[in-house]
Amino acid sequence: MLGALGLDPAEERAYRAVISGYRSDADAIAAAAGVGRTEVMATLSTLLAKGLVTRTDGWYAAAPPDVLLGPMLVKGQAELEQARAAVSQLADEYRGGARRRDSARLVDVVTGAEAIRHQLLSMQREAREEVVWFCRKAPIAMTSPENDEEAAALARGVRYRAVFETALLEQPGELAEVVDSIRAGLVGRSLPTLPVRLAIADRSIALCPLVTDDATGEPTAALVMESSLLSALVALFESYWERAIPLRIDDDAGGADVPLTPDERQLLSLLLAGISDKAIATQLRVSQRTVQRRLQELMQRADAQSRMHLAWRINELGWLADDARWLSPR
């Protein structure tokens, strides 16, 4: 889970073991991490070099995660912003006519909502391996119910991955549509904001709008064929995908050792995805007060003092980690 911050699985296990033990010796950390003493000593040396733990007279203690990991998050965000700026610059160059294209153009412009919708449907109809999406609020060409090709593509084995803006999931009816898609096979994740709207099919063609949300007139989009620009768009999607929160909505109750009902698992997944109490209540068909009461009960069971602390405890306790679709795409 902390791989985006430069920690490999062994380092993360050891770091969590140090945090949970407050002050521990190497033997206790090795036991908690489930590895041998020799292996954990090498890992602890790496954590010491990174400044994530301290050692005094053979006892190890963790440095505050928010103080040391925070700058790593800022660095990662800066890299994402650089990628976003690069994509915007390329789009500006295209619109300004800075790049001359021959008859085998690698980028074309699609004008009008209907034409963009037709292209989106065509990309899915012709897809053979995978379709990925950035889904932002206020779609400019096609809403979820209008996507007639998704179900057919999923049925023939095409993989679907989508990152949804939290604001989109808050809109009436959208969360239910996403739930239906995930149950059909789509792998969904969520982030508070996304840089652009984007669709990529088989890593060989992409469609990316060229206008801002507040633009007037007919929308336009860039249809990008195989090129360095397409590679940049694929990399942009993957970087956001790695940082997004998985949406866990299945009705199965998970492993026997996970003390959660299906509704509780879905409630926690939507909480981690940043969905509001109101939208969660609508999806679960209960009142907001019921959602808040259930969250309070879960906080007590997890020994969490706040919702943010609850999110940390969910991962520590492994309450959602048994689902393969929570951990990774198909």
Detailed description of the structure:
- Residues 253-318 form the HTH luxR-type domain.
- One of its GO terms (molecular function) is DNA binding.
- InterPro entries: Sig_transdc_resp-reg_C-effctor, TrmB-like, Tscrpt_reg_LuxR_C, Tscrpt_reg_TrmB_N, WH-like_DNA-bd_sf.
- This is Transcriptional regulator.
- The protein is α+β, with helices and mostly antiparallel strands and 330 residues long.
- The protein has three domains: 3-63, Arc Repressor Mutant, subunit A; 73-245, Endonuclease Chain A (Endonuclease, Chain A); 262-327, Winged helix-like DNA-binding domain superfamily/Winged helix DNA-binding domain (Arc Repressor Mutant, subunit A, Orthogonal Bundle), CATH 1.10.10.
- Helix content is 51%, strand content 15%.
- The chain has helices at residues 9-21, 26-33, 37-50, 65-95, 113-126, 150-155, 166-170, 174-184, 228-243, 262-272, 277-284, 288-302, 307-317, 324-327; strands at residues 23-24, 53-56, 59-62, 107-111, 130-135, 159-165, 187-191, 198-201, 205-209, 220-224, 245-246.
- The strands form two sheets. It has an eight-stranded mixed beta sheet, with helices on both faces. The chain has a three-stranded antiparallel beta sheet with strand order 1-3-2.
- Mean pLDDT is 79; it is low at 98-104, 251-256 and 322-330.
